[in-house]
Amino acid sequence: MSPLKLCCRPMSVGVLIAVTGELDATNTGQFESYLDSARLPGEPVLLDLGGLTFMDSSGLHVLLRLNAAAGEEGGAVHLAAIRDVPARMLEITGVWDALNIHPGVDEAAAAAQAGHADRHRETS
């Protein structure tokens, strides 16, 4: 098993969290705690999942809870560079279409920036 590694970097809008290794029932608590401490309510969260090699249903549930919480707070979650097993998990469960998924981090950042600017115009 590849250990889960998480790395956070602030962006001009929100945060970018790189996720590498395997995400399963043994470490979803760690993942969820990290997300809660790294994100700012109402700000976009970008998850670079290019290094995520495995994800089970417990990891999927964390992503869905994060997406729901961010939406309730006026923010958004953007997933980038999903590949292999994690991508297949999202596809077969039908979750792929319910999340903001982008081919790479640059596309996710551009979408987050545009969405954040749109939300600020609506509230002004």
TrEMBL record:
Residues 15-112 form the STAS domain. InterPro entries: Anti-sigma_ant, STAS_dom, STAS_dom_sf. SUPFAM superfamilies: SpoIIaa-like (SSF52091). Transmembrane segments: none annotated. It holds the Pfam family STAS. It comes from the Bacteria. Belongs to the anti-sigma-factor antagonist family. PANTHER family: ANTI-SIGMA FACTOR ANTAGONIST TM_1081-RELATED, ANTI-SIGMA FACTOR ANTAGONIST TM_1081-RELATED-RELATED. This is Anti-sigma factor antagonist. It comes from Nonomuraea rosea. The lineage of its organism: Bacteria, Bacillati, Actinomycetota, Actinomycetes, Streptosporangiales.
